[in-house]
Design brief:
By secondary structure, the chain is an alpha/beta fold. The chain has helices spanning 3-22, 52-69, 89-101, 114-127, 155-168, 182-197, 216-225, 239-248, 293-305, 313-331, 337-344, and strands at residues 39-45, 72-73, 76-84, 107-110, 131-133, 148-150, 173-179, 201-208, 229-233, 257-261, 281-284, 348-351, 354-358, 365-377, 380-392. It is built from 11 helices and 15 strands. Strands 7, 8, 9, 10, 11, 12, 13, 14 and 15 form a 9-stranded mixed β-sheet that branches. Strands 2-3-1-4-5-6 form a 6-stranded mixed β-sheet, with helices on both faces. Bound molecules: P-hydroxybenzoic acid.
């Protein structure tokens, strides 16, 4: 096994074990609510703090889904309980425990960052409560509890596309720059593996702290290495700062291309990035510019309901997560626990991103991954899709 991956796994396993210890005394809960009782969905998200944009996008998408599909399911009134964890793992775990024990939610959902999902996995297992991970994207998350189902994406899944594209497009030498935690390390490993397999060379692998990152010293090292391109992953919301410093430090003028996962050119902030973003090629599972009638309907309705805010990939993970929950509740006739979980597995449907499948074995999402380029269309910046890899499974699971 790659030593980097081993370090990441150890760190993540420790976080998960801490969660298990804290969840030790969780009592078993009744899994079938009496008819007439509400169907409660506990949505735990960072609504404040540095990752608040993720919470804002997912809550808006969940509310849109309910507005479009009604607030009753299987004869029960849907009650969405939104809790703010401010992006702090201990808080996510405590709030989730309260939702399971006191509120007796049928399902936990949300989870804006990997450490927050890992901290909560033991609560889902012990409370026998399905946990729909709408945002957090480190490969191993779904392996931390048999009750976890993912409706967002994984970093290995979306990184393959840009690694292949780079190797085929005269990019020979790359420096990788990622946020130093689970998804960043997944992105770094996947990029390196696929790019070098196709003859590319990695000149340096840089890891930037997740909290309050100062990109300047790292970008200087990229410049000094004189690669053809820098491959980057930073979580949703952080891309603007990286992009700004990339241009301020003159990396673009030094002829270094920026390539990335779609997290960096997130639709929530893309339009405010300015010309420095134009031409950036990335790979991801969702672009607000995805040219399908279903996506056009979704983007129009989302923007109308949210003062013109453009939905990003987090919103789509939330919207599809609600779809998975609603359809499962119909199948389970409103029952929770195992019956609800089983009805989530194997769902196939058309998402605003395209056709998706919840793999019944892995409980992870299988989806198309698109190669996109930032272009100015009618005065606004969009990730315009120009190629795709069809039905990509998380390759992290097969390592
Ligand atoms: C994560 O913490 O798993 C995460 C957060 C934001 C992203 C991607 C991954 O854009």
């Amino acid at each position: 096994m790659n030593p980097n991956r081993r370090t990441a796994l150890t760190t993540l396993a420790r976080a998960a074990a801490a969660g298990a210890a804290a969840a030790g005394a969780l009592p078993a809960v009744a899994q079938t609510a009496a008819p007439g009782e509400p169907f409660k969905i506990g949505l735990v998200l960072p609504m404040t703090g540095p990752f608040a944009s993720t919470g804002r996008q997912i809550e808006a998408a969940a509310r849109l889904y309910i507005a479009q599909n009604g607030d009753t399911v299987a004869g029960r009134k849907v009650q969405l309980i939104v809790k703010d964890d401010a992006g702090v793992a201990d808080t996510t775990r405590r709030l989730s425990q309260e939702l399971v024990v006191n509120e007796k939610v049928a399902v936990l959902a949300g989870f804006g960052l990997t450490p927050l999902a890992l901290a909560t996995a033991p609560i889902a297992t012990q409370g026998k409560t399905p946990m729909v991970v709408m945002a957090a994207a480190t490969s191993i998350i779904t392996e931390q509890s048999p009750y976890i189902v993912r409706t967002g994406f994984t970093l290995p899944q979306v990184t393959l596309g840009i690694a292949e594209w780079a190797a085929k497009n005269k990019i020979r030498k790359v420096v990788t720059l990622v946020s130093d935690y689970g998804p960043g390390i997944d992105a770094e490993n996947t990029f390196k593996q696929r790019f070098t397999l196709n003859g590319g060379q990695i000149a340096a692998e840089l890891r930037v702290p997740l909290r309050n990152p100062d990109f300047a010293p790292f970008l200087q090292r990229v410049r000094d290495a004189q690669p053809d391109a820098m491959f980057a992953f930073v979580p949703s919301g952080v891309g603007s700062a990286l992009m700004k410093q990339f241009s301020e430090r003159g990396l673009d003028k030094a002829g270094i291309r920026l390539i990335a996962t779609g997290d960096v050119v997130d639709d929530d902030i893309l339009n405010d990035m300015g010309d420095v973003a134009v031409g950036v090629v990335s790979s991801h599972h969702y672009s607000a510019a995805h040219p399908s009638p279903a996506n056009k309907r979704f983007v129009d309705a989302f923007m109308k309901a949210n003062n013109g805010m453009r939905p990003n990939f987090m919103a789509v993970g939330g919207y599809d997560g609600m779809r998975v929950i609603y359809e499962a509740a119909k199948t389970s006739k409103g029952a929770g626990g195992e019956a609800l979980l089983n009805a989530m597995k194997g769902q196939i449907f058309e998402s605003p991103r395209g056709q998706v499948l919840i793999d019944a074995q892995t409980r992870d999402i299988v989806q198309d991954v698109y190669i996109r380029k930032v272009e100015r269309v009618d005065g606004k910046l969009w990730n315009v899709e120009f190629d795709k890899m069809a039905a990509v499974k998380d390759p992290g699971k097969t390592k």
